[in-house]
Amino acid sequence: MQSGITAESRVLEIACGNGNAAIWLAQQTGCEVVGIDISSSYIDNARSKASKFPSLRVTFQKESATNLPFENGSFTHAWSQGALFSCEILEIFRQQLIWQQIRRKKRIHKSKITAIFYTLKEHLNSHI
After folding, report:
1. Max CA distance (Å), the chain
2. Which Gene3D superfamilies would you find in this protein's record (predicted)?
């Protein structure tokens, strides 16, 4: 995978929604994915979907990207598909501040940030 995400990677997905991208990423690479979202219903849905794939290393937590509870160096990569894709122009500045906080607090090893700006909808629907 061009992002450098491998089976040895531990990926933080920010604003994971219903978990589709996290499950897809784990299926494609064998990596561990921890998905966070501020919506309890999204997290419940993501956990339900993940239960259909017990061999995948995917977990979901209700957390905010602006207040991460993880230790420094907990992840090799950060991934966000939905959060940045749906931003309004004024929200882009706020999102940039979130990425700066993530890098500054060193939650991501070597600050490897992967932001996906295209939709994976068709591809995800064929795998989940």
Report:
1. 40
2. Vaccinia Virus protein VP39 (3.40.50.150)
Output the CA torsion 87→82→48→7 (10° steps): -150
- Average the pLDDT over 53-60 and give the result: 98
Please state which of the four CATH numbers 3.40.50.150, 3.40.50.300, 3.40.50.620, 3.60.9.10 is assigned to the domain occupying 10-101.
3.40.50.150
Q: Is the pLDDT of residue 27 over 50?
A: yes
Euclidean distance between CA atoms 5 and 29, whole angstroms: 7
Q: What is the pLDDT of residue 67?
A: 79
CA distance 51 to 76: 24
